[in-house]
Design goal:
mainly alpha, SH3 type barrels, 4 domains, three-stranded antiparallel β-sheet, 16 helices
């Protein structure tokens, strides 16, 4: 307000102290008249200040996400569900970004996440131990979808820091609240040998499996137990292989499901080593119904090898036919996959067994033309080709 318009109010009457003449009737309180210039100046200044403040608020409330080559510098994180962060950009487009692909998030649109932003910065700068401490602090005051998101990031930080025991605790939390995300979050910091840490971790997981029997979290918990045992107790892992191979297919996007499928492929490989070939074929057929393309070639190779070995044992031409079909499915449907060359080699072996040497030679030459062939497969294919054409 302009100083020239200030009045002093006493009781029920106003006494004007302005040097500007006032209008009023005798016996009535005078009404001060402020200069027009001052009033316009105050109104203009207030309006400009409001616009500037609003602009600063918009700028300050913009969130940011860095995810590999993708950078989202301005927008707002609107939700987190099934492991996917939803980010709305200024053009109103909504982007879904898997949390495992995100390098860093900066959140300015929500108050109270100072510790979260600090944790993200530590994680981005490869200081996961410091990040974990800040994530734990951020959890205390978080609400809405933020606690779930922070727990996933805390699991990542503990695992990257090599805090295996604490990573397992966080994995159990994530499995119980986000079971379809947990499949992609199996800790990589598993010790190479059994120790007190692995024993304690297995005890916690056994208890969690019992607590979650029949619930959505159970398959993820069984998979992480198997992953640990594969490293520290191969004999017991082999005993669990049939149960792991028979688990229901993982749900979620390919980014979330692929690690779970790979554990089941590993279990099927153990079954093949145990000569349980029928179980391998059955398990592969079940997983192929929903397996992502990144895993399907490996599954088909397993099925082909199981059928091929069954044909050798029983001199079964039908088994050889099933093997050949499985191998050729890899070569035909996944020609760009690096495993297609191996499939061609095995298909040639099938043709040799069923007395089709000409077709076997053709497949071997096609196999050897590939640039992505492994050294072992290339050597085996050359030896076989030499034998067939000599």
């Amino acid at each position: 307000m302009c100083p020239s318009t200030i009045c002093s109010i006493r009781s029920s009457s106003a006494v004007c102290r302005s040097p500007v003449p006032c209008r009023g009737s005798p016996g009535k309180s005078p009404r001060p008249v402020a200069p027009l210039k001052c009033q316009l100046s105050v109104g203009f200044t207030t309006a400009v200040s409001a616009v500037i403040a609003a602009g600063m608020t918009v700028a300050a409330s913009a969130d940011q996400i860095k995810a590999g080559a993708d950078n989202y510098p301005r927008g707002r994180i609107s939700s987190f569900a099934d492991g996917v962060v939803k980010f709305r950009t200024p053009d109103r487009a909504l982007h879904g970004i898997p949390i495992t692909t995100i390098d860093q998030m900066v959140v300015d649109s929500v108050g109270g996440l100072k510790d979260f932003n600090a944790a993200e910065d530590y994680l981005f700068r490869s200081q996961p131990a410091a990040a974990a401490l800040r994530y734990e602090r951020a959890l205390r005051g978080a609400d809405g979808f933020w606690p779930d998101l922070i727990r996933v990031r805390l699991l990542q930080a503990r695992d990257r820091a090599g805090h295996f025991d604490k990573a397992v605790v966080q994995f159990i939390h994530v499995a119980e609240i986000l079971p379809h995300v947990a499949g992609a979050m199996i800790p990589e910091s598993i010790p190479a040998r059994p120790d007190d840490t692995t024993r304690r971790a297995l005890e916690l997981i056994e208890s969690a499996i019992e607590r979650n029997a029949g619930r959505e979290a159970e398959p993820a918990l069984q998979r992480v137990r198997y992953a640990i045992l594969r490293r520290v107790d191969p004999r017991r892992a082999a005993e669990l292989a049939p149960a792991i191979a028979a688990l229901p297919s993982a749900r979620g996007g390919e980014w979330a499901a692929e690690p779970a499928y790979r554990l089941q492929v590993d279990a099927l490989q153990l079954l093949l080593e145990q000569r349980r070939r029928a179980a391998v074929v059955e398990g592969v057929d079940q997983l192929l119904e929903s397996a992502p393309d990144s895993v399907a070639p490996e599954l088909l190779l397993l099925k082909g090898r199981a059928s091929y070995l069954a044909g050798l044992e029983g001199d079964d031409s039908e088994a050889f036919l099933r093997a050949g079909l499985a191998f050729m499915r890899v070569a035909v449907h996944f020609p760009a996959d690096s495993r297609a060359g191996e499939a061609l080699y095995w298909a040639a072996r099938v043709h040799e067994r069923v007395n089709r040497p000409t077709q076997a030679v053709q497949l071997l030459r096609e196999c050897l033309d590939r640039k992505d062939l492994s050294d072992a497969t290339r050597a085996a294919a050359r030896t076989m080709l030499k034998r067939l054409i000599d």
